[in-house]
Design brief:
0% strand
Amino acid sequence: MSLPTLTALVVGSMVGAGVFSLPRRFAQESGVLGAVISWVIAGFGMLMLAFVFQTLAVRRPDLDAGVYAYAKAGFGEYLGFFSAFGYWASACVGNVTYWVLIMSTLGQIAPALGGGDTVLAVVLSSVGLWGFFLLIRRGVKEATVINRIVTVAKLVPILVFVILALFFLRPQVFADNIHGAAHAGSLFAQVRGTMLVTVFVFLGVEGANVYSRHAKRRADVGRATVLGFLSVFALFASVTIVSYGILPMEQLAQLPQPSMAGVLEAAVGTWGKAFVSVGLIVSVLGAYLAWSLMAAEVLFVAAKDEDMPRFLSRVSTADVPVPALLLTTCLSQAVLVITLFSGDAFDFALDLTSALSLIPYLLAAAYCVRHTAGLGPAAPGARRDLVVAVLATLYTAFLLYAAGLKFVLVSFLLYAPATVLFAMGRREQGRRIFSRREVAIFAVSVAGAVIGVLALALGWIHL
């Protein structure tokens, strides 16, 4: 892949369902001031993380698949497996948000689809999900070409939204929203409450690293990561901030998803809602395509490294890892069914997607700290890279705190049983399943899963 293709893949991965949900999600948690602080923290933190991936792409060109490979190199095979599985599961759950949002958009025309979480919505989403499976089976190259076209197409309605919202912005409404409504709480609570949302919209910043084995030049991987991030950061922040100048926070917080459509409808009329809705469907389908490819690639590379069962390393004549793609589609299908039992299908899937991605991000950043610290001060740029890696590690650690206990426990419900795949891989190689250190890690994951089950059963946490 060339630099433009890799950059388009990163942008295509990040510009998806999340951006169209930003007005409501931010208004539920924060006023203008809290939103600005959140974006500053998120922008700085994610930029540090982007620099981490750029650094590792240059300093460790022998490591492919990005997030998974870095965790394994730094902390061993089992935590590397956790990173691969967590990143893959995050992508699968994220794919569910796309279908929920599409059905929620269509539900404003066809009430039977509700908020994307009715039986009919799940059935139609399932048809789309398996339709994309058949498309991607035809070949990676064909799918990535489609993604480049869709990436350009889906940026247009977002840019139009920002321009029109600025033109129709009401200064008094904006001023009233600066400190937030009564439901927002303290400034710290506002910032903490929006952190998972910012993680979700920036998922995909590491997309070029995942496809590093396809890159023509390793240096292009790091460049694409930073270019992709910078290309969308201002856009995401703008969508959030200008919305506060159209409607009061209380009204923004009650808008149905996609809330961006409701904001533009309030500004210019019903055509604005239709315009955003069409743009959303194009955007989400493009992002779904990119994330399905990346999720399958993670499983494929882990299997090639013998950290997943061998059947996941098989590829078709079109260079598509079909078994990995099939397992990806199956998990997305399972989560799609689970949304029928959640209080808010979209918000639940969005937050879980973000929470699942945090452990892989934290392990990658921590590995960069370890690697750059071992280079010594004499190595060119080592001190700068170490500072960046430390900042990225602190940022991802704060995100785990901001996620809260609920989503950490729900994450363990996926991590613990996933160890079956790790055990299958070890059995195929005729090796012991766990070392002493890995037994301790497995025990922690099982304990977390048990507590998660009890918390759900006793009503301490809710989906």
